[in-house]
Amino acid sequence: MGRMRRKARSNATSSQWTANDRSDLVAFLVAYRDAAVGRYQLNNPEQFVIGGIDFPILSVRSIRQRFLALPIQLTAKQRKVVHECCVETFLFHGTIDREDGQRQVLISLYADGLPRTEGRRSGALYVYRPWFCRERESTDAQEAAIEAVQALIDQPSRCIRDTDRLDLEQLQTMVVPGPLLDNLLLVNSLASIRQMQREWKEHPPTIVAFDLEAYNESKYCQLTCLLQIAVPSHPHQRHYIIDPLAPDVWDEIGPILAPYFADPSIVKIGHAIGGLDVPCLYRDFGIVVVNAFDTYEAATQLKLPLKGLAAVCHQYQLLQDGDFYTKLKEQYQSCDWRVRPLTEPMLQYGRFDIHYLMPLRELMIRDLTRDAWASDRQQSQLVAEALQETLQQFAREDDEDDFMTSARTSPTSYATGRNNDGEDTVGYQSAVSRQSSLSEYDTPAEDGSVMSNYTRKSECIANVLSRKELNASELRMQIDLGRTLAMSQEHCRKLWRGRNEPRMGVLDVLVQRLRRHQIPWTSSQNELYIQLADWRDAIASALETLPQFIAPLEFLAAVAYQRPCTEIGLRRISTSLPHAIEENKEIREQLLDIVRESACTKESEDIFCEEYYFYKVNRFRRLMDDGIIMQWKWSIAVAVVLAGAALVVSGRKRSR
Questions:
Q1: Contact 108, 323 (CB under 8 A)
Q2: Residue of 451, 475, 265, 474 lying closest to 365 (CA atoms)
Q3: How far apart are CA 342 and CA 494, in angstroms?
Q4: What is the pLDDT of residues 468-506, one digit of tens each?
Q5: 8 A C-beta contact, residue 352 and residue 184
Q6: Which residues pair with 451 in a beta bridge?
Q7: Whether the predicted pLDDT of 122 surpasses 80
């Protein structure tokens, strides 16, 4: 079947396989399957090169192994394609974690061919009841919070509280230490969440920095797995890492945190909150975020070249250990946050995401109002220069008037204090001189000395030019800051709306792949898929959870294609079944009953639908076919005859 070495249709390795690469992969899997069951005779070893990657050589020895290990060079996307093609070709498949940290795909024809792997397993999603899916008595609190968000959008200046002020001098000398070890509270039990509740009552927060980590399979399948909060009630901030997946924690989060997040007098700081944060908080816990400051929107308004949180913190020189934070972000930004237990690096990564949000907000507000300050400085500078020139002119005129007055006064009368009429003017001159010497531009100082108005006004202008603080009323007048606040409140409206995943979209993708490989898809299979999707929605409604937590549509489409009637058949689709099906026998049997009763199962003529191979049985058959068992039988027979003869001889000797 084919050439000794199949030429690759793409010379270089690519993380994204083409349709031709996918066809080559299906051909490789079919060749392995048919050779393993004896439908295809391997006369010579065959080498497949797919997408520039050398796959295992198919030989008599390799196909007789329990499983076939695929190259470790495969990327995550390529491994996903391999799993999809294994479903199309009725092969068992799985992924293992190697000791060197890499992941590897194993394929096998046999139901007992793949090894069982032990490791950290992600938690079941269907046991968590999102607030949005529950039967709720009232949503008045959420509706009131949504109205408050809309009011802040209409008037973003109301986001700035009367107590808000910006100390520029303090910002210039601000030093932000890294996350400390003594200010962390890991909330993973009912007792710890009660402790957090007591601390917030004793020290009500005025600012809350928040972030969350979620399982994000798709926009229809998400779950909050970690919630990080920082409040300034501690000298160096107080960090709360809340584990919603811990026992007795999930149901307590909403009632405790929702009032604080809905309070407009408490500023909530986050980064890109409209992506996952706001929808997840609302869907899972009924939390509506009111009066938020989104540092991502601030970075957009400031036209920063990079808008990621780590990049923004680095630009503002906040990171004390930027390389360490970057490594954590590369490792844990896209990891599976369902996995427990939480490791120390995972907790450190969560703390980094909230630790710098508070100082970052102040620095970004400073920059958002910088243009206004520059304009004020320019205007004040022009006024100062004009005023200085005017006052200098007045000073010169005053000097000239004093000189002319002294010239008109006789030396005798000036010296003796008498005027031209001979009247005594010493006392009068003394009083008048004090009044006349203080011109309309002069002001007596507090210590009794005289300070010219020119000097006083110049100092006032200098104070304006060197302002070190902005109060709340001045902050409300800044246009760029107002735009940032308005967009931040817009993101608070991006609540979860109960999106329904389009069923036929997933099915169309599978049918197109099957048709590309000349594999039929019948109308009865289509009806089975719809029945399975309806069954899934009914189970999810009964358990008050998301339908995707019961089983993904891709899994149900594969079930409709392969039509398994036993648990072994389900595991050929996926060695790790969805948790709801794996852990609940009743749900699993309901699924299999629907498949057994479907018309497409009765009409199926594919031998792989109900025929399963086991490595132990097949190995014995191969030994029989190779004559090895017969050789063993003759050897055993000869040994038995010789042993019997020896016993007879020894018995005769004893009788003598």
A1: no
A2: 475
A3: 29
A4: 788 899 899 999 999 999 999 999 999 998 878 899 999
A5: no
A6: 443
A7: no
565: which residues sit within 8 A by CB, 6+ positions away?
592, 595, 596, 601, 610
The rounded Cα 590 to chain-centroid distance in angstroms is 35
Is the per-residue pLDDT at 176 higher than 50? yes
Determine contact, residues 575/87, Cβ cutoff 8 Å.
Answer: no
The C-alpha angle with vertex 479 and arms to 477 and 485, in degrees rounded to 5, equals 95
Please give the Cα distance from 117 to 19 (Å, whole number). 32
SS3 category, 94: strand
The whole-angstrom separation of Cα 422 and Cα 405 is 18
pLDDT over 90 (residue 525): yes
Per-residue model confidence as pLDDT tens digits over 12-62: 445 689 999 999 999 999 999 999 887 777 778 888 999 999 999 999 888
* Structure confidence at residue 610 (pLDDT): 64
The token duo for 532 is 């399975």
Q: Please state, rounded to an integer, the average pLDDT across all residues of the chain.
A: 81
SS3 216: strand
pLDDT of the residue at 404? 47
| pLDDT value, residue 376 | 54
Helix (H, G, I), strand (E, B) or coil at 280: helix
Q: How far is CA 647 from CA 226, 326, 549, 653, in A?
A: 76, 79, 70, 10
Query: Regarding predicted confidence, which is higher, 287 or 5?
Result: 287
pLDDT at 617: 67
Cα–Cα distance for residue pair 363/379, rounded to 1 Å? 24
CA distance linking residue 266 with residue 259, whole number of Å: 10
Question: How deeply is 527 buried, as exposed, middle or buried, from its count of CB atoms within 10 A (0-12, 13-18, 19+)?
Answer: middle
Mean pLDDT on 461-469: 53
Confidence at 342, pLDDT banded by 50, 70, 90: very high
Structure tokens of 364?
């970004």
* 180, amino acid identity: L
What single DSSP character describes residue 229? E
pTM: 0.77
Q: In one letter, which amino acid is 291?
A: N
Residue type, position 489, single letter: Q
Is the peptide bond preceding residue 341 cis, with omega within 30 degrees of 0? Answer: yes
Using CB atoms within 10 Å of the CB of residue 494, give its burial: 0 to 12 exposed, 13 to 18 middle, 19+ buried: middle
Q: Is residue 510 packed enough to be buried (19+ CB in 10 Å), middle (13-18) or exposed (0-12)?
A: buried
Q: Residue type at 401?
A: D
Whether residue 354 contacts residue 230, with contact meaning beta carbons closer than 8 Å, is answered with yes
Give the helix, strand, coil percentages of the chain, each rounded to 5: 55, 10, 35
What stretches of 285-400 adopt beta strand conformation (E)? 292-294
Spatial distance between the Cα atoms of 11 and 7, rounded to a whole number of angstroms: 9
Token look-up 């070190």 returns 468
Supply the DSSP symbol for 47.
B
Query: What percentage of residues in the chain have a pLDDT greater than 70?
Result: 74
**DSSP 8-state secondary structure symbol assigned to residue 446:** T
- Is the model's pLDDT at 87 over the cut of 80? yes
Q: Which residues pair with 195 in a beta bridge?
A: none
Residue 180 gets which letter from DSSP? P
> Do residues 256 and 362 lie in contact, with contact meaning Cβ atoms separated by under 8 Å?
no
Q: Which of 90, 88, 95 is nearest to 115 (CA)?
A: 95
Neighbours of 230 (CB within 10 A): 26
Per-position b or e across 136-148, b if 16+ CB within 10 A of its CB: eeeeeebeebbeb
The pLDDT of residue 397: 56
- The structure tokens 């308005």 sit at 486
pLDDT score of 224 more than 70? yes
